[in-house]
Amino acid sequence: MDVDIISEEENPMLHRTDIRFETTHEEATPSRLSVRDSLAAKLDKASEEVVVHELNTKFGMRKTVGYAKAYDTAEDALDVEQDHMLDRNKIGDEADADAEEA
């Protein structure tokens, strides 16, 4: 999967960068987590610092356009993002799993 960044907009108040991107893929629309990992690698960030909000693929096309937010730290993402977006991006699950085991 090839990820191209269309635009980046700094948002210093929330310690993040808003990103519009386009990905080209061979098979079906890629999963949110695979796009998040590819985008994080492209931005040289940890996966927990990137939250993918939208993925839009037109019928029959091999391109997906999306919107994501890249935070300075994973803690910033946990503080700002809504719970359902954190669940969709599997952020904070490791901490919850450790708390349940204790």
Describe the 3D structure.
Helix content is 33%, strand content 35%. The chain has 4 helices and 4 strands, in the order E-E-H-E-E-H-H-H. The protein has helices at residues 32-43, 74-80, 83-88, 93-101, and strands at residues 2-11, 16-24, 50-57, 63-71. It has a 4-stranded antiparallel sheet. With 102 residues, it is of the alpha+beta class. One of its GO terms (cellular component) is ribonucleoprotein complex. Pfam families: Ribosomal_S24e (PF01282). Keywords: Ribonucleoprotein, Ribosomal protein. Belongs to the eukaryotic ribosomal protein eS24 family.
Keywords:
disordered C terminus, 4 strands, ribosomal protein, alpha+beta, 33% helix, 102 residues
Short account of what is shown:
By secondary structure, the chain is α+β, with helices and mostly antiparallel strands.
Protein topology:
Blueprint (H helix, E strand, L loop, with lengths): L1 E10 L4 E9 L7 H12 L6 E8 L5 E9 L2 H7 L2 H6 L4 H9 L1
Antiparallel strand pairs: 1-2, 2-4, 3-4
